[in-house]
Amino acid sequence: MILFFVMSTFVNAQDKWINFKSVDFAFIAEFPNEPKKSVQKVPTAVGDIDMYMFTLQSTNNDDNNAIYSVIKSDYPEEQFENADDEYNNTVLNGAVNGAVTNVNGELVFDNKIAFNGYPGRSFKINIDQAYIYMNAYLVENTIYITQVICMKQKDQNEDINRFLGSFDIIKVKGV
Fold this sequence. Notes:
By secondary structure, the protein is an alpha+beta fold. It has one domain (19-169): Protein Transport Mog1p, Chain A (3-Layer(aba) Sandwich), CATH 3.40.1000. The chain has helices at 2-14, 85-102, 158-166, and strands at residues 18-22, 27-31, 36-42, 49-57, 67-74, 106-115, 118-127, 130-139, 142-151, 168-169. A 7-stranded antiparallel sheet has the order 3-4-5-9-8-7-6, with helices on both faces. Strands 1-2-10 form a 3-stranded antiparallel sheet. A hairpin with a 2-residue loop joins strand 8 and strand 9. It is globular, with a radius of gyration of 17 Å. The N and C termini lie far apart (56 Å). Residues 1-13 have low confidence and may be disordered.
C-alpha cells in the first residue's frame, strides 16, 4: 500500500506540467507550472528592442531545473527585407555569442537546427555551478528563445528535453 502511494505521488508530480499558450506572442510550451511574464528593453545593433520573457523559476530544491523560459523579441521588419541564409546565420551567431557573453560563460556546443523550416541554433553554456540549454529560432524578423537552467549535478535530466521539445509556434490570424 505504501509503494502504491509513493508511485501515485511520483506520477502526479510528473503530471503537474501545464500547456501554456500565448496567443498574443504566438507560441505554446509545456511548463511545470504557470510562468510569469515580463518585458525589458535590450540594446541591439539596430536599436533597442523589447524582450518579452515568460519565466518559471523553481523555488524547490527537489526540482530538476532552476529556470524555464521562453523569450520573444521582434526586430524591425526592414532589417529582414532581403535576409538570406548568411544574414540569418549572422543574427543567430549574435544570439549565441550574446548569451555566452551576458553570463560570462563557456560555450559547450552550438548546433545549427531547423524548426518548421526556419533556421535555429541549439546550444549549451557552462556557467559556475550550472548549465544553460538554449534553442534560438529565427522566424522572419522574430527571434524565439527557449531556455532551461539546471544545476550541474542535475545535467541532462529528462525535463530539459521535455520543455525544449514542447515549444511550438502557433499561427494567429491577423485582425
